Amino acid sequence: MSLKRVNTVLATAIALFVLYLGLSFILAPEASTPGVGLPNWPAGDGGGFLVMKGIREFSMGLVVVILLVTGHRRALGWVLLMEAVAPFGDMINVLTHHGSMAAAFGIHGLTSALIAVTGLLILRETREIKEIKETREAPVTAASAAA
């Protein structure tokens, strides 16, 4: 299996998971909250913040889907690196609010690492393709022809 295919599968899985996560927070924030590792449900009308989290997640998933569909792989790599910041921030949030360390590192930390590694793999893939194209398109000079 080629690196491009592996990267596409990973990016697609990330996009689908992020879309699912976003929808779950938008449609049923009270059911989704216990899984994030925070110790308490927000007081008062704090559920609105969870819907905001859902909208953030859903929009991040849409960006990945659009870049996958349009074939902008280098941009996809950079966007995935940027999007790895969100679960990292969630990990820090859970830790600073005395939430579950297992959820902080096991859910959010690993998610951040997986997204970042996928972004780096896609950037590596696109760099290799660019180098191959540059080699093929390099003009033949008198010095290189004589060698």
Task: Characterise this structure.
This protein has helices spanning 3-27, 29-32, 47-70, 73-83, 85-96, 101-137, 142-146. The protein is mainly α and 147 residues long. The longest helix has 37 residues, at 101-137. It starts with a helix and ends with a helix. The mean pLDDT is 87.
Estimated helix fraction:
over 70%
Rg for CA atoms: 20 Å
The total count of strands amounts to 0
Shape: elongated
Unreliable spans are none
Mean pLDDT: 87
| Quaternary organization | single chain
- Specify the structural class: mainly alpha
- How far is the first residue's CA from the last residue's CA? 36 Å
Name the helix and strand elements from N-terminus to C-terminus, one letter apiece: HHHHHHH
- The number of distinct helices, counting runs of at least 4 residues, comes to 7
Q: Tell me the major beta sheet.
A: none
What share of the residues does DSSP label as strand, in percent? under 5%
Write the layout of secondary structure elements.
Layout: H1 3-27, H2 29-32, H3 47-70, H4 73-83, H5 85-96, H6 101-137, H7 142-146
Helix pairs in contact: 1-3, 1-6, 3-4, 4-6, 5-6
